[in-house]
Amino acid sequence: MNDKDPIKTKAHEIITFEEGDPNENPWVVGPPETEHIEVVPYDKAWPTLFDTLSQRIASAPGIKALEIAHVGSTAVPGLSAKPVIDIDMIVEDPEDEASYIPALTAIGYTHRVREPSWYQHRMLRLNTPCVNLHIFGPDCPEHLRHLLFRDWLSGHPQDRKRYEEAKTAALSGAATVQQYNMNKQQAIREIYQRIFAHNGWIPEN
User: Fold this and answer.
1) Rounded to two decimals, what is the model's pTM?
2) Which superfamily, per CATH, for 35-198?
3) How far apart are the first and last CA of the chain?
């Protein structure tokens, strides 16, 4: 990494997990309903599907994406996952929703989440195929963590297996994706600690 690598220059912010305002209502169209959550074996078609989705997003009239990245479990070869493609799209100013929301709505996405207190995060959903499109600003620590986590799991089979086991266990009692995500949060944080220690950002245990 060179000195201008955002992952290196943002290390302090990356190891600090911001929680956002607990009193903030993030739901644009109401809270999510109870839904069936499943974890399925890795599908080799997921990277190709991401490429198709990415190209369609990038070519939507008016979209000025600085980066479009495949993140989440479907971006990790060999990892079982919910059959949902997670995408991070980086824009100059997430608060300027008029610069990207109408264009994404025009190609089928629905604006579901707005979290100004948490990295100015926005999330849009596409139902078919199922996509979570996350919007962040340049060098956002949460986006950089997504890249670190994806790349670490891709290169570390033991942690990939641990995470897969945690994902399967997290299904128990989870009526919503939010509950499912909370159930596997400890495993995620433990893996992040190993990533941070490997990079020399925190002491090794």
Assistant:
1) 0.94
2) Beta Polymerase, domain 2 (3.30.460.10)
3) 24
